[in-house]
Design brief:
By secondary structure, this protein is α/β, with parallel strands linked by helices. The chain has two domains: 195 residues, EAL domain (TIM Barrel), CATH 3.20.20.450; 202 residues, Hypothetical protein af1432. Helix content is 50%, strand content 13%. It is built from 20 helices and nine strands. The protein has a nine-stranded mixed β-sheet. It is elongated. The relative contact order is 0.07.
Length: 402
């Protein structure tokens, strides 16, 4: 799925960008569509800090984000790093005793706090002792009223931000009145940034893949992962007690199952389950073809000089269609996975030994016989009956998918 967020730069007196305001967008149309405020802010937070990334969006500069009364009272800002956040309190927020206590706590934790669309009212007096920045809307606030706000609040340790600065005259006026920061169409319209996102459940599955293929991975960590996921536990116990393995006595312990199968075999099965969980219904046929190819590669490898890379062959094919399933570039998916560099090279198009086997498997499945013959000769496997191995791979895959 695609995620969106708009950013509008905020400038200092030298017209240098010092931060950005992050704005909710649900598509490529550059306007706010009236979604619920809580939902909009949560969406902006998720897209800014998780899906796209604060470094990519602001280059390390702080992000102004609007917070509703409900989100502030629930102390949602504390979930975010203070180094990258300016908490923008909406003008609709009531400065209740509870709200003031929350703001004092946030201030004490080191967060920067701004008041949005400020118009002076006596009830905001207590907040003025806490906030760092006041934003003044230059469309709503006209003439000398823009100056009076700065003069009236000069005793407080507050900086002023002129927003909706539309003209050079607005900028010059704000500059001369003592405003420190400037934002508006005179400088830049909000810019929409979009990104292909991995839904959160898929993100978790990829994280598990990353963990189990880490070199420091242990049997204890594997046991903990399996026990945390009921579906994996159930599938593993079903698998090990199936006719495929044919053990005489029934196995009830996850730890026992891991020891019997061995860490490499368990990694293979967990990888299969994670990718199956990641795959939506519309990609079920693609997933089946991927698993058939992975098993076929595993069956062919012993006839080549790749026998030592048996686990890598299976994993390589299992990952080979993730770019389609997740709608993300392959290089981006592989970047954080702790897997053999040869797999990464092969899936990024390099003609190493694994890459040649991958091309052979693809060409066989696609029925591209001239191409298949070239790679078959390169791996020197012309003497084996691949059609028989393919049927075996199909049977194996059907059992797993059921």
């Amino acid at each position: 799925m695609d995620v969106y967020v708009a950013r509008q730069p905020i400038f200092d007196k030298k017209q240098k960008v010092v931060s950005y305001e992050m704005l909710f967008r649900s598509n490529k149309v550059n306007c706010y569509n009236g979604i619920d405020g809580n939902e909009a802010t949560c969406d902006v937070i998720s897209n800014t800090f998780v899906s796209i990334g604060i470094e990519k969006l602001t280059g390390g500069k702080k992000a102004f984000i609007n917070f509703t009364e409900e989100l502030l009272l629930n102390e949602i800002p504390t979930m975010l790093p203070k180094e990258y956040l300016v908490i923008e309190i909406l003008e609709t927020v009531e400065p209740s005793k509870e709200m003031l206590n929350v703001c004092r706590k946030l201030k004490g934790l080191g967060y920067t706090i701004a008041l949005d669309d400020f118009v002076f009212k006596p009830k905001f007096q207590s907040l003025l002792e806490i906030v760092d920045i006041i934003k003044v809307d230059f469309i709503q606030t006209k003439g000398l009223a823009r100056k009076r706000i700065v003069e009236m609040l000069s005793k407080y340790n507050i900086k002023f931000l002129a927003e909706k600065v539309e003209t050079i005259a607005d900028f010059n006026e704000a500059y001369n009145y003592g405003y420190s920061y400037f934002q508006g169409y005179f400088f830049s319209k909000p810019e929409i940034i979009s990104e292909h996102d991995i839904p959160i459940n898929n993100y978790t599955n990829i994280k598990v893949l990353q963990m189990i293929h880490n070199n420091d991975f242990s049997l204890k960590v594997m046991e903990d992962i399996i026990k945390r996921d009921i579906s994996i536990s159930y599938k593993l116990l079903r698998l090990i007690n199936s006719s495929y393995y044919g053990f005489k006595s029934e196995i009830h312990s996850i730890k026992q199952a891991i020891i019997i199968l061995g860490l490499d075999e368990i990694k293979k099965w967990i990888s299969l389950i994670m990718i199956k969980k990641t795959c939506s219904v519309k990609y079920s046929e693609l997933l089946t073809r991927t698993i058939v190819r992975a098993r076929l590669g595993e069956l062919i490898a012993p006839f080549t000089n790749l026998n030592d890379l048996l686990q890598d062959v299976f994993l390589m094919e299992l990952l080979s269609d993730l770019n389609v399933i997740l709608n993300k570039p392959m290089g981006e998916i592989l970047e954080d996975l702790a897997i053999n560099q040869e797999i990464k090279k092969a899936l990024n198009g390099e003609n190493n030994d694994l890459g040649i086997l991958h091309e052979l498997l693809m060409s066989y499945q696609e029925g591209n016989w001239p191409k298949f013959e070239i790679f078959s000769q390169a791996l020197d496997i012309s003497g084996i009956d691949i059609s028989e191995l393919y049927i075996e791979a199909l049977t194996w895959t059907n059992e797993f998918m059921v």
